[in-house]
Amino acid sequence: MDGSGLDTGGLDTGRDLDGKGVESGALAELDGRITGCRACPRLVAWREEVARTKRAAFADWTYWGRPVPGFGPPDARLLIVGLAPAAHGGNRTGRMFTGDRSGDVLYAALHDVGLASRGTSVSVDDGLELYGVRVTAPVHCAPPANKPTPLERDTCRFWMVRELELLRPSLRAVVVLGAFGWQAALPAFAEAGWTVPRPRPAFAHGAHVSLDGLEVFGCFHVSQRNTFTGRLTPAMLRDVLRTAAEAAGLTTRPEAG
After folding, report:
1. Parallel/antiparallel/unpaired status of strands 173-177 and 214-219
2. Strands 78-81, 21-22: pairing kind
3. Which residues does residue 176 pair with via DSSP β-bridges, in sequence order?
4. What are the residues facing 174 on neighbouring strands?
5. How far apart are CA 86 and CA 69, in angstroms?
6. 246: burial class by Cβ within 10 Å (0-12, 13-18, 19+)?
7. What was the pLDDT predicted at 255?
8. Which of 13, 59, 86, 194 supports an S-S bond with 189, CB 3.0-4.6 Å?
9. How many CB atoms lie within 10 A of CB 7?
């Protein structure tokens, strides 16, 4: 057991690094631990109930119904932080931002910028690859009404801190989607060893904070509410992703036209 109250199974991230960054398998081991977490009773009950009852459109699916780990290479230079898996998206498919409209928007933008092999994400076996980018969330279980409680957010922080520690050798920039993710990520950065200003910087679309060489950018969440109303347009999202990718030292595709 760790001080967080979660069973880490003896995972020691402090000795999982080699000269090239993250040792092969270290992040995969963490992801495996995440998928077995049952620390939040409300979230466990909800994700499993959704997996049993399903949505009619997905009646032939076997839902994942567990915590959803991060997705992307273990030596990512850019991290994208969301909110939590969608009940019939990540909770169904087992991959972050996969199988829902928010993911459609995010991965289309990543593809347009040149950071993804394709612009759609429908299942874990669809062949999607991310180039230098990893996608994660501060809460790994689908919450009722897409609203984790502060206690659930804080309980899940342990996993994000460990993920950040493993990514630190290569990580150069982060895009945080939405105010919830921003409020959850800043304490995790601090626990993972970065110096976060006090008072903590406020969230805003286009916000930019430098933390000991880690460039953190704020972006409106890719929720249907934001994208359907035009609060977040594809061009706005691409602009943030391209700026963050360049800060991370990643090559991007020029804007068309």
Report:
1. parallel
2. unpaired
3. 81, 218
4. 79, 216
5. 13
6. middle
7. 80
8. 194
9. 14
- pLDDT at residue 25, as a whole number: 87
| Whole-angstrom distance, CA of residue 245 vs CA of residue 235 | 15
- Counts for the chain of helices (H) and strands (E), in that order: 8, 7
pLDDT of residue 166: 97
CB 234 within 8 A of CB 105: yes
- Work out the burial of residue 67: count CB atoms within 10 Å of its CB; fewer than 13 is exposed, 13-18 middle, 19 or more buried: buried
Reported as a single tens digit per residue, the pLDDT across 229-252 is 999 999 999 999 999 999 999 999
Distance CA 172, CA 149 (A): 29
| Residues recorded for the chain | 257
Q: What is the number of other CB atoms lying within 10 angstroms of the CB of residue 160? A: 26
pLDDT attached to residue 257: 57
Residues sharing a CB contact under 8 Å with residue 217, sequence separation 6 or more, in sequence order: 173, 174, 175, 176, 206, 207, 208, 240, 243, 244, 247
> Please, how many CA atoms are within 13 Å of residue 37, restricted to the half-sphere of its CB?
28
- Joined tokens for residue 173: 């920039």
Helix residue ranges per DSSP H, the chain: 26-35, 41-53, 90-93, 101-113, 150-167, 178-191, 224-229, 234-248
Q: What is the pTM of this model?
A: 0.91
Low-confidence stretches of the chain (pLDDT beneath 50): 1-5, 7-22, 24
